[in-house]
Write a structure and sequence with these properties.
Distance between the termini: 34 Å
Protein name: Tryptophan--tRNA ligase
EC number: 6.1.1.2
Organism: Candidatus Sungbacteria bacterium RIFCSPLOWO2_01_FULL_47_10
Number of strands: 5
CATH class of the largest domain: Alpha Beta
Subunit structure: Homodimer.
Shape: globular
Largest sheet: 3 strands, parallel
Function: Catalyzes the attachment of tryptophan to tRNA(Trp).
Strand order of the largest sheet: 1-2-3
Helix content: 55-70%
Strand content: 5-15%
CATH architecture of the largest domain: 3-Layer(aba) Sandwich
Mean pLDDT: 96
Number of helices: 14
Bound molecules: tryptophanyl-5'AMP
Length: 332
Amino acid sequence: MTRQRIFSGIQPSGNLHIGNYLGAIQQFVGLQETTDAIFCIVDLHAITVPQDPEELRKKTLEVAMIYLACGIDPKKSIMFVQSHNHDHAELAWILNTLTPLGELERMTQFKEKRQSAEKRRGVLSGLLNYPTLMAADILLYQTDVVPVGEDQKQHVELTRSIAERFNNRFGDTFMLPKEMLNKSAERIMGLDDPSKKMSKSAKSANNYIALLDSPDEILRKIKTAMTDSGSEIRFDKKAKSAVSNLLAVYHAFSKESIKNLENRYAGKGYAEFKKDLGEIIIAKLEPIQNRFRELEKNSDEVMKIIREGAERSGAISQKTLSEVKQKIGLIA
Ligand code: TYM
């Protein structure tokens, strides 16, 4: 049996946090053992909202180092920067010409980002076309499975319908991809507001625990994380959304069942629970942070890995793009 193809990406914008890790990166590391895995740093997606050029360059390399520090192994997977493989932008353009405006306007992420962009400098058309670029990312590699957090599910569904429409009109060309969620951490909520997902672009850094936060910062952020009324530590997303989120994080990092955790902390207050949780997160992030610091001293090596990744990815994406161009009537 041929191995399944996995593709996923992360934007080099803001600080990568434990939501990105538990929802996405942790799955990547496991999947590379049994699949043909491709991981991208999607800089062209990041620029759909204004970015500082120097900061964008820095963050792009930082995400590459975080991938490696978390355990992505370039011998087992391909990792590369989206803008280094021009096929992504080219297929995205073609897909834009085949995707009805209404389907893009209906995307939840667009509607949310549109609101915050309107308050600042206005909405850029790249933000609307974000999902067609994401569809290009996925479809170029004939991807079977896309490991992502719950917030990206709708984009993968749209990718599937873009692929289906293309296949119906021009003949079988694209695999139809499926999303894969980490059920126990598909949507980690903000520490300062458990009604919204933890987000790199949150206004306050107290919203998230960044993968590179120091132990002191982690303890402080967990200590000041919102809790619910009553002191009971119980998983109940409706009545106790803040504590349920902390329990989900605890479970995802420790693998201890939520039931066990509830029993262990029965009759104990938030302070003890939070202190233990902080320590577990610190212990899990410490080896990642140590590897990250080593890689920082070796950025030439990291550049070499992503350059090679771009070449290897291009060898695969070229085949799909040529077929698409031939089928829609472009002269070779
Ligand atoms: P991005 O950069 O916003 O997030 C990277 C990954 O982290 C997941 N994630 C979360 N999971 C659980 N809880 C959270 N609070 C949380 N916040 C983020 C995201 O779902 C994502 O898996 N559009 C994508 C990037 C992308 C992509 C692709 C993904 C571009 N092309 C092709 C897959 C395939 C994004 O914005 O991710």
